[in-house]
Write a sequence for this structure.
């Protein structure tokens, strides 16, 4: 299997559907719409939609029929980035190599665009829920993953814990598992729910993949790799505590290798063709951005 | 009918359910939870929950069975107030006579508490949607009313239009209809949907009531009545354009009387006992806060 080709197939189909969706958005004022559209279409790896679509594919479902749900997931991810970048939060002027939303549209509209994208995601998920019980279950899972017991708890913990240089590894892991992990697990579990498949194995894999993704993110930030697209070495320059700062770069690279191995092992009990996900683990481990 | 007694019955039952709900909220970090709880339980008229519960009552349904939906509606209202009060938005240090959320918990947690309340509302509505198609319909209506085609469009328009002293009456009405109106109409229409009743008359009444509510709000602000609980005369002191500024206080009072009369007329085609709503119109028109 050519991993890049497969990844691109999912991502490009998603991108096409997203642009079509954005073109159809009809509401006033124009500035609100433009602010939402800007951050939605600014690019990015589309990891969460790809996870969702490829998992549907693995379960033998017609993944091209579920692009709206992929868009809803990306809406939630995008809203979280917009709000995270705000001056009162992480205060980042760049995102995906472009000016962050509030630098383009002002803070007020960045707040509103984030709110609107979160709302839009659920508007789409309520519409999907009318298709059947399995869709409603998936919608509920997504909503819980994104909320005060999930991603938002992670954002809150990120603000509270990582500013403290004495934060424990347990606290940092809480941040990782919630802020990043929940929305990486969710697309996989949602796909399993829609397929009517028991998802515990896939859930465990998603949790490990989420940890790997966040760890490589912190490693890339520490290295200050120029292709990351965010303000470079931002965590490094700030007093923000990360696992990488706690253990150092070398130990973290080793930990990432072990996590990648754990991800591969967790795929083994899944009696499906998991090749794409095995290659995805390498991609996340070795990525440069 | 003693209007005050009836209003209090709905509001107090709601308040009891809300506190019970807040006590059951279990997630970390504590600061996020406290921030959400603070704004939810800070008081207020609970107009939207009361509209919802009293409309269910009018349709002969057991309104005490639907308190979770009333809480979800209030969560959305509360999130919008928290975000509206942020320095980048309306920049208001007080709300309901108490320090606004960001003055208590900082801007970052005010943003997150708002996000979390919006998310929580839909988490509750997804749970309710499992009860049947009419609940899913009501959930979708609420979501659309709150979103980029509804309340958030109004918040965006408020920022864009009311700063412009040449804004047209049409633009100001767009703000009123969306920012305030949508979430006053929604509880009424949702109740009708759950009752399985055609809701066009009630929807029209809700629209007029929403306009009346916003107009009396602006009149109270212009008068600088000390019981309003927000920063007094804030619109008056700022360059924010309102209908009251456009037409003057006397003409606005007259317009409010006409709107109240219109509300009463719109209740007539509804073949139910609408006495509570007739008295509610007087209450909204004559309120001091």
């Amino acid at each position: 299997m050519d991993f890049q080709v497969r990844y691109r197939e999912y991502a490009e189909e998603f991108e096409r559907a997203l642009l079509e969706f954005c073109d159809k958005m009809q509401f006033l004022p124009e500035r609100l719409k433009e602010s939402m559209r800007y951050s939605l279409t600014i690019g990015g790896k589309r990891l969460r939609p790809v996870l969702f679509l490829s998992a549907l594919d693995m379960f033998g479902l017609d993944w091209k029929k579920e692009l709206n749900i992929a868009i809803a997931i990306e809406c939630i991810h995008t809203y979280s980035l917009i709000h995270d970048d705000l001056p009162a939060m992480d205060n980042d002027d760049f995102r995906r190599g472009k000016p962050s939303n509030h630098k383009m549209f002002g803070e007020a509209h960045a707040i509103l665009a984030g709110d609107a994208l979160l709302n839009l995601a659920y508007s789409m998920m309520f519409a999907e829920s009318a298709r059947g019980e399995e869709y409603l279950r998936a919608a509920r899972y997504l909503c819980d993953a994104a909320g005060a017991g999930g991603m938002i708890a992670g954002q809150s913990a990120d603000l509270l814990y990582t500013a403290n240089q004495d934060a424990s590894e347990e606290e940092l892991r809480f941040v990782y598992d919630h802020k990043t992990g929940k929305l990486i697990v969710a697309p996989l579990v949602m796909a399993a729910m829609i397929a009517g498949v028991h998802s515990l194995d896939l859930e465990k894999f998603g949790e490990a993949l989420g940890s790997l993704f966040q760890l490589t993110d912190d490693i890339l930030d520490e290295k200050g790799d120029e292709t990351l697209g965010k303000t470079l070495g931002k965590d490094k320059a700030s007093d923000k505590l990360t696992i990488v700062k706690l253990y150092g770069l070398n130990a973290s690279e080793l930990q990432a290798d072990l996590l990648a191995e754990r991800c591969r092992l967790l795929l083994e009990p899944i009696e499906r063709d998991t090749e794409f996900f095995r290659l995805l683990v390498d991609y996340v481990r070795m990525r440069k951005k």
Q: What stands out?
A: Residues 3-286 of chain A form a domain with the Farnesyl Diphosphate Synthase fold (CATH 1.10.600.10). The radius of gyration of chain A is 18 Å. The longest helix of chain A spans residues 169-195. The first strand of chain A starts at residue 94 and ends at 95.
